[in-house]
UniProtKB/TrEMBL annotation:
One of its GO terms (molecular function) is endochitinase activity. GO terms for cellular component: extracellular region. Residues 26-297 form the GH18 domain. It comes from the Eukaryota. This is chitinase.
Length: 297
């Protein structure tokens, strides 16, 4: 039986649908600040590879503690030596790169004891890194775009309060506060799950590494089962979190060629697909991983 030719309107519709299914262009997020020898913040953004740069970490805060920034050998915040980062932060933002501060991490002293404690931490973050004012801004007077929750210690309570307070402060101060989170791939996340469920998070970069049961090496089925569970969360964009080299994590490294040909095609069609998050800039400098995947993300 001969097939009928498509009408012009049908042809336009077909092309439009094809574009929708193939143009889920994503971005790359990268953590910066925890390793000696990595590129500067300004150099990181000048590479053109990243949509988000996440400054890591604020590993001490809450429960009455004096908050502390730790940027390894990049600078010493205790002596005021990190205020010079403002110039680099602004250089990144002029390039369209969003710069976030990551609170928490896998090694630190942090936690929230009550909704009031969450409010105090939110005020500290607002006044010292975001749109508020303080005489002791550790990174200088540049205004960061938002806060990343990398909660791996300190209990699971009151992070939802902190998220609400940060968004509220942004609305009151006339500035959008971007919120992101870095949960582990087993669903739901033990620490970040309650906060993410508020629906206030713009980006969630799920750590599909150091979790053998759900990372890609566990098999396509286990990986996709975890990804689909994360698709259910009320967040704006979902990123695949990966180590940028074998040395960057215990397990979960995916060679760039395999990521491009076997992994990304599985998830790029997701309506929440946002791209790839890498740990970290130091390891990416060693391998060139972001450059190898950028055109496929």
């Amino acid at each position: 039986m001969a097939s009928r030719a498509l009408t012009p309107m049908q042809l336009i519709g077909t092309v439009f649908v094809a574009l929708l299914t193939t143009c889920h262009a994503g971005g790359i997020a990268v953590y910066w600040g925890q390793n000696d020898g990595e590129a500067s913040l300004a150099e990181t953004c000048a590479s053109g590879n990243y949509e988000f740069v996440i400054i890591a970490f604020l590993p001490k805060f809450g429960k009455g503690q004096t908050p502390r920034v730790d940027l390894a050998s990049h600078c010493d915040p205790a002596s005021g030596g990190c205020t010079g980062q403002s110039k680099d932060i602004r250089a990144c933002q002029r390039r369209g790169v969003k710069v976030l501060l990551s609170i928490g991490g896998g090694d630190g002293s942090y936690g929230l004891s009550s909704p009031g404690d969450a409010r105090q931490v939110a005020m500290y973050l607002w006044n010292n890194f975001l749109g508020g004012s303080s005489s002791s801004r550790p990174l200088g007077d540049a205004v960061l775009d938002g806060i990343d929750f990398d909660i791996e210690l300190g209990g699971a309570k009151f992070w939802d309060d902190l998220a609400r307070d940060l968004k509220s402060l942004g609305r009151s101060g006339g500035r959008r506060v971007v919120l992101s989170a870095a949960p582990q791939c087993p669903f739901p996340d033990e620490w970040d799950g309650g906060a993410i469920s508020t629906g206030l998070f713009d980006a969630v970069w799920v750590q599909f590494y150091n979790n053998p049961e759900c990372q890609f090496s566990a098999g396509r089925g286990a990986f996709m089962d975890a990804w689909r569970k994360w698709e259910s969360v009320p967040a704006g964009r979902l990123f695949l979190g990966l180590p940028a080299s074998k040395d960057a994590a215990g397990t979960g490294f995916v060679p760039a060629g395999e990521l491009n040909s076997r992994v990304l095609p599985l998830i790029r069609g997701s309506p929440k697909y946002g791209g790839v998050m890498l740990w970290s800039k130091y390891y990416d400098d060693q391998t060139g991983y972001s450059s190898a995947i950028k055109s496929h993300v």
